[in-house]
Amino acid sequence: MSATDVKRTLSFTQAADDDLTIYQRSKPGRRAFSPPPLDVPERPLDELIPAPLRRSEAARLPEVSEPEIVRHYNRLSKRNFDLDTGFYPLGSCTMKHNPKLHERVAALPGNAKLHPFQAPADAQGALELMWRLQYSLGEISGLPHVSLQPSAGSHGELAGVLLTRAYHEDRGEHRTKVLTPDTAHGTNPATVTMAGYEVVKVGTDANGNVDIEDLRAKATTDVACLMLTNPSTIGLFEPQIKEIAEIVHGVGATLYYDGANLNAIMGICRPGDMGFDIVHFNLHKSFTQPHGGGGPGSGPIAVSDRIEPYIPRPQVVRRPAETDDDVAGQLASNGEAWWYDLDYDRPKSIGRLRGFQGNYGVFVRSYAYIRSLGASGLKEASEVAVLNANYLLAKLRLEGVLEYLPAAYDRLCMHEFVLSGAPMKRELEIKTLDLAKRLLDHGVHPPTVYFPLIVDEALLIEPTETETRETLDGFAAIVAEVLREAKEDPEIARNAPYSAPVRRLDEAAAARNPVLRQPL
Amino acid sequence: MLATIGVGSVEDLFADIPQTIRLNRSLALDEGLSEQEVYGELRGLAAKNVSTEDEVTFLGAGMYDHYIPALIDSIIMRSEFLTPYTPYQPEISQGGLQAMFEYQTAICELTGLPVSNASVYEGPSAVAAAGYIAKHHNGRKRFVVSRGVHPHAIETLQTLAVGYGMEVEIVELTDGITVLPQLDDQVSAVIVAQPNFLGAIEALQELSDAAHAAGALAICAADPIPLGLLEAPGEQGIDIVVGEGQTLGNRLDFGGPSFGFFAVSQELVRRMPGRIAGETRDMDGKRGFVLTLQTREQHIRREKATSNICTSQALNALAGVIYLSWLGRRGLVELGELLVQKTAYAREQLASLAGVSLAHTQPVVREFPIRIDGDVDKVIAHCKAKGINPGYRLSDNELLVAITEQRSRAQIDSLVGAVKEALA
After folding, report:
1. How large is the ipTM?
2. Are β-strands B177-178 and B187-194 bridged in parallel, bridged antiparallel, or unpaired?
3. Which domain covers residue A472, as residue numbers?
4. Which of A343, B3, B135, B377 has the largest CB neighbor count within 10 A?
């Protein structure tokens, strides 16, 4: 079978004009919005806003009816693959099930329609939920002081490096370098630059661990911080973490934990007990905030006692309700034991990282998740995540896949593992990219590809705990099938996908001649 | 499964974790609950909050109680939009990518600039990200920032500027608007807001002319709904327009998640932070969309990236473009005019009270500050007792009052009545 033999037709849900934008569906005079009546005396607009301050021509937004909008975006939705439809083993992204209850509780008017400047007395439920989430994340990480403010993992990283700067400057120390492993996610070095430090890379040894001798050589007194994730980006636990912490602390630097891979260790071990000073969480990974096609996320941080004075403000705090405070007194009379408040009086704080109190809607979902699973449920989630990853690796081996896609580090993994497509490229003449694109035709999302950078033709596979054994078996069989097919005719994979809404797209052309908006 | 792996127990899978760092006890958290118990607990917590359904609110100051049409939830709750990751595999992410492209088009129209990204975290951090562009663009040392920029944005800029090594100089407002001092050759960017935090409309052309005369960039944090009525900042010489997107179809959510919008002049495209969707063709020549200009980004450029931003706010930005399509070309203008009329009425009625005066008399769209001859906390407490939240407390004697299309004349009159009683 060759590429040209693969029959392609529009599916039942596709239409020939599905690539028209909402602007191309616009017709002058059509509309969806009907404004409420003007119920105050009308004054000439020129009196209220002088004409020179106003637009001469209205912004060219689409002119479409409500049914057209609904149909347009429903059709667009059918041009997306999503987690609720199929397996999504995207390494480092923790694509676990997003429980449906969470959308219901986030939408309660007391949450969704709560103004961020509502007085604390009238936002006690929200502040209590945030306090409880802070407490829970502190317990899970072993670092008791939590700020929920950062908006995403990368934002949490930036907070962490700025905290490090504040900590050292408060001690009169000026440091210039931050260490990151060569396996690090790209946000780590980008963050270091934004926070005004120089990046120094630390190598990885043959077993996939931090090269301790290289670390020892580079850990000098001008180093502010080592940013690490454990398990690492290649899905391996760093067994020498205590020694690493001693080296880093020995030169007065802080140890930062990138929480991207927390899903492997909840309830089993804690960054605080490993010697980390600062950790960020990705609530959109381990704590089930839906990814939304690229956000929103949330990246709270937890820190040790010595970093606590510098955390962002405001901070959610609680005090006994039986105090002289008017509102607290009132709460006490209502039978409430605690009074929750926003504490701005933090003189050593690095300040704000964003507006208001953080992504509260995400906090609601993550708190609901923690309450649903509880202490033993969280631990079980991590155990099953690691079990599923190791099972899938074993199953791929049984299917003969590792012959062409060997494990980059052939040992037990944590919640994810890395394969190298180098032999496949050499012997079957298809690249990791081709394999990924052919997987699309089998109704599964490909793993993360070409990351981590230190593995040639890398595939990073993270099945998560919410997949069944049957799904994992099915995936292993699909990968084996694609390899078998490539042995007979590599052209099929090279030209894949065939069943997606579009075929392989010319990304180079998009970057060469950028078209970034609909011409109007 | 264990037999397939070749281990005897799940415990064996964790052999790499040294016993010395194991938790070896249960997490000190409660045990799990059934779905209905979790719902009950969360419902109980939510009931302790006073939402905009529970009182008549005139709170604004950065987030506003605009009406959110029902079609937004029905679309953004579709799993195909709610549950995918960032569109790394464009062939199966055309829906999300095309929505980003449509969103970018709407933001270009509102801001009057040629290039928008696919969104950033939210408004205040977008201001700090814009400052980072200016630093790299001209290598200068200082930002001159109007006091009319949202205080959270100023604080965020100050936090981040410490990291990237810039000074922040604040310019106080004069009769509610920004009057710039003489700018020297170390000013990297002038940062203003439209309308500003006190609701006043700034003369952006004059401000951008002054910035450019000193060789600095002009950055504006804009409120998108008033931009339907006001001259686009990009048409008035502004180089970077950012802002808080909550008012475009996003919930209040106690402050987030929402999205930040971010648009730049052609000259600054390659310094833009965040994701950008672009149009291209597939191998059959069919139109399609991809994430593009990725050589700016952290996953390619690492320490040389224009920003560390990774996650954008795709779902919130999707709500934004649906909202703008729902309002449509004429609706956005009509909404703006409605706000101007209702706000003018409320402002006039409040200013007519004994003991109340206007903190400035500049033209406004939907928000204005009043000065109270007395204790503002007493006024707030009195209004609250009547089920009215009268606005944002600016100072001991000033209140910032916001009017959306959801506030009826009767509600405005009840606010005026309550303030009058409080001052009697």
Report:
1. 0.98
2. unpaired
3. 379-509
4. B135
